[in-house]
Amino acid sequence: MHDVAARAGVSHQTVSRVLNDFPGIRPETRERVQQAIRELGYRRNMAARALATGRSEVIGVIMPEVPHFGPTSTLYAIEHAAKQVGFKPLITTASWDPESMGQALDFLLGRAVDALVVMAQHPDVLAAVDAITDVPVLFVLTGNSHAERSVAVDQERGTRLALEHLYGLGHRRFQHITGIAGLTEAQLRRDTFVAFLDEHGLERYPILEGDWSADAGYRAGLEVDDDVTALFVANDPMAIGAIHALEERGKRVPEDVSVVGFDDVPEAGYTHPGLTTVHQDFTEVGLRAVSLIFAAINGKEPGVVEPVEPWLVERASTGPAPS
Amino acid sequence: MHDVAARAGVSHQTVSRVLNDFPGIRPETRERVQQAIRELGYRRNMAARALATGRSEVIGVIMPEVPHFGPTSTLYAIEHAAKQVGFKPLITTASWDPESMGQALDFLLGRAVDALVVMAQHPDVLAAVDAITDVPVLFVLTGNSHAERSVAVDQERGTRLALEHLYGLGHRRFQHITGIAGLTEAQLRRDTFVAFLDEHGLERYPILEGDWSADAGYRAGLEVDDDVTALFVANDPMAIGAIHALEERGKRVPEDVSVVGFDDVPEAGYTHPGLTTVHQDFTEVGLRAVSLIFAAINGKEPGVVEPVEPWLVERASTGPAPS
DNA sequence: CCCCACGATGTTATCGTCAACATGGCGGCG
DNA sequence: CGCCGCCATGTTGACGATAACATCGTGGGG
């Protein structure tokens, strides 16, 4: 910066003012400085800037350690939206145990991030993060809890869309394959499933434990009860795995068993049969997340945040209940 | 830091020494300092540290703008491997036009990243990045070019594995659905495909243009020539889409047409039929990338880097050529 | 018994930038 | 014609750490 100032025949402070678009610089001076910057290929040192201003224009993002569709899509959406307002994400992964979360937090806060986005998939992380007061914190994908500081797709609504669709087709014997036990999203889908059964007085078949993977879906699919005609699966990859298992067992989808997934991954329309599923709009989640963060960084109080509405995409994997 | 020093009754420099694990600190002093750090919940300011040392312990990663399986998996692999050696990735996305790349580079270099990982999917970015000398640069997923500064899966080998498998099953009429035109990986797969046809004196059916998406695969699948019995698709999602199209057209897979994909996404084993595909080990790519970066940061000269070996996973989507 | 060397710690300068205050020139108004 | 005020710019002092050098005490060797 000193060199630039010398070359342009001004003080370094004037260079700083040009860099930061301050008013009250004579156009010709500004031009001279910019010329010098170009000639010297000067790039300002953000570490120094961060030190002086206390802001880094970086938002810390804590991701789960396994790259599932939802968090990954959201990350991309956040990156795009953040770029528009001049922020970039600094990524770190963490599982939900306190030590791992603690390390992630230490790292990001030490980095003087301007805000924190936590893809909190487990209730325990809320506690770990609650102590943070240095910077605004936003939870993403937590389900509907912590509503005033979070952005999420309405899990209960999504689940009910799926189940009501099946119920409307005449199905009465439901089974569910869950996501990873303990994760908020998996839990919400499961709880809503159980609540739905009770509300309609339907029989409870055993709930099958999955881990989001197609492989787990396949294994769970082998355990699906023979009487069941409607299978609600907590995400699409598991649904694909489960359908594979059902077909191996000689059950046809949707003639014998209807299957609904969750997420609407891009392949969902092209599997065989095409997968009926609940679409989650992660782009919208990312957009809202960044706009909330931006508001918080600038000290504005965000209004109430509505959960993002999911919708049902009907495809060939669901049909009328067999008589 | 000053407060910590005061509380421990030492100078700030001693605190710094404890923080950086310098030798020659009396154990009791060290303990006193660590105690003070804990009590005050002190966290060191990395911006200041970066300013003083000129190192940030952050590696810049430039990703393509669309979250495909390969780059995303590699990102996660890099994140995990980097964490082991104390680095975190700072992510930015860029398309391959010079302006977009320039902005990404400006941002990351201004951030004083210690190294740069470029998921260079297009030959043009090589030029844009070649001018960078401030920090070590590593290309990832470029295919086999720029070998001394890149890590990649051997695309030619993967493609040949797929084609030889089909050829061995008796297929002689091949068609190919490509990835996004111009991207290095897509181009390498395509070039190898064409070379293979020529080597075996096989007829050239039109090459179908895709864009990596299941949707594009479906549309291309509608165009597959009626005589063709072997379809080589540049990635798995497109293969899934193409199979869907073929089945809609009344062609059975694999009885009428055999299909091979590329990537081995986790769902590939559970689609109907299970997808024969070329497995790319992105974890290994991430591991090698980080080890090369780490070597470069510490000034060591890396040895020659072998491309990562792909392998063929045979599943139900391929079978003997129809007679 | 003195001095030196070394181990443990303190002091000062520095990294590159921004914020706050200081200066200097010029035009307008009384 | 002189003074005041503002516009454009310069000067100085943080920000929070590390690096290089300075100091102090102590034990061992001559």
Explain the overall architecture.
2 copies of one chain form a homodimer. With about 325 residues, chain A is an alpha/beta fold. Chain A is built from 12 helices and 10 strands. Chain A has helices at about 1-10, 10-20, 25-40, 45-55, 70-85, 100-110, 125-130, 155-170, 185-200, 215-225, 235-250, 280-295; strands at about 60-65, 90-95, 115-120, 135-140, 150, 175, 230-235, 260-265, 275-280, 310-315. Chain A has a 5-stranded parallel beta sheet with strand order 2-1-3-4-5, sandwiched between helices. In chain A, α1 (about 1-10) crosses α2 and α10 packs across α11. The longest helix of chain A has 16 residues, at about 70-85. The first copy, chain A, binds a DNA duplex (30 and 30 nucleotides) through α2 and α4.
